[in-house]
């Protein structure tokens, strides 16, 4: 055996050990570099996963915010109420008009679509008149539509523009038709739908009242149904603004058959007049019938509203009869009907209605 093999401290052995250590060091350095790269890749993947999770959470949050008031599964067969995207077109030439959806005393509403996205919208056209009243109607509707954009059960406006002779409001299209048409088609609605629709009307009215707005023309013809089956209250041209709490306003506005007794008597009134109109609408949803005697002319109808009790079909059940109520109308100045039920309070709200046992299955907190 050579001296190099025998002597561990020999130069040859040291050289071989040094080469071995250097090789091992290079391998260790390479492994460390690979480990560092893998750690960096893992960190990047973790960051990507975190970003995706955050995006998903934001989407869920937006979806939750768009869904409006929650209704328990036992009551609501509908999909969540989602706001459609806002079209960018701001001139009438940017739309294709398809057909007339309806006409009123102040103008007409047409179905249209945007030239770029083909999104369906409803365009309300109002002919400008030199009378000051007409311009007040246009400006009032524009102001209230801006407020209405904050609630899922009020019709949303996308744009307002004008020419020299006409004013235009581009609004979301409620493809489900009017509540009036729904009642006429089905004769009367099932209790489940009555509760569902009336709950959403209550939410919409409470939102308007909290912003000092009285609608003054609540009726089935001014309530539309969206493609998801949700309520959309519209037509704010007759609304009163700046009426908060116990404050009152005046003026004979609205549709004759839905006007509250104070309006017929041309007295001061509060937001309670909307709850009267809501009560008439509720009765028509539930029974398919108007609760007062129509008579042969408007004077007969007015007399019935002021002096008579509302009447209901004999076939309605006890639960529905309780919801509608049946009280005397001898002195409306001291009482307010909410809905066909009089409550001794100068400034009633929908809270009186939602306390009824019929609404116990409704989730009012969004």
TrEMBL record:
Signal peptide: none
Spans annotated as Disordered: 1-87
Record-annotated Protein kinase domain positions: 95-366
Pfam families associated with the record: Pkinase
Gene3D superfamilies: Phosphorylase Kinase, domain 1, Transferase(Phosphotransferase) domain 1
One annotated GO molecular function: ATP binding
Family annotation (PANTHER family): RIBOSOMAL PROTEIN S6 KINASE
Protein name (record): Protein kinase domain-containing protein
Protein source organism: Xenopus tropicalis (Western clawed frog)
